[in-house]
Amino acid sequence: MKFKTQAEDFSLKLGLVQGISERRATMPVLSHVLLNVNKNRIGISATDLETTMSTWSSAEVSKSGSIAVPARKLYEIVKELETGEIEVEEIGNHWVEIRASSAVFKIAGLPSEDFPIIPELHTDNLFSVESALLEEMISKTIFAVSPDELRRNLAGIFFEEA
Question: Among 112, 115, 86, 116, which Cα is nearest to 99's?
Fold first, then answer.
């Protein structure tokens, strides 16, 4: 796996998904993001087994591949680089090298096969709603949501298109 991308865009996308990954996970791979590189884009995914988020970033891909990389570490490195082009390459044995104009970082990753399978999104049940309306709907029903994680059946809000 090897690609070049703009640090600012990559940092923005990593910032979105890295909040999903768990820092102190029971499974080490849950503290990672999955980088799936092919064609001219990078798929970036994170999950805590309850919530999954995936996004894409454009890139100049030299070699396709995928690897799981520690989310927080990768985000902090890329965020500090913030501007200009960066190059990311898997250098063997699941190590990833991140190169910028004046710095080189190496971080240990995990095989992409260790990352949980991300369910395919079925678009037949999707619907659009204005963000202000969604906020209002949540604010009017959130009082009834149980804060007790043991009562999962009461710890959510059900949305249905009418």
Answer: 86
Where b means 16+ CB within 10 Å and e means fewer, 55-64 reads: eebebebeee
Residues 21, 46: contact at Cβ < 8 Å? Answer: yes
Read off the pTM.
0.81
Q: What is the pLDDT of residues 52-67, one digit of tens each?
A: 999 999 999 999 999 9
**For position 120, what pLDDT does the model report?**
80
Which domains are seen in the chain, by residue range? 2-114 (3.10.150.10), 123-154 (no CATH)
**Angle at alpha carbon of residue 22, lines to 17 and 25, rounded to 5°:** 150
Q: Which of 53, 58, 49 is nearest to 4 (CA)?
A: 58
Q: Which residues contact 62 (CB under 8 A, 6 or more apart)?
A: 2, 3, 4
Altogether, the residues listed in the chain come to a count of 162
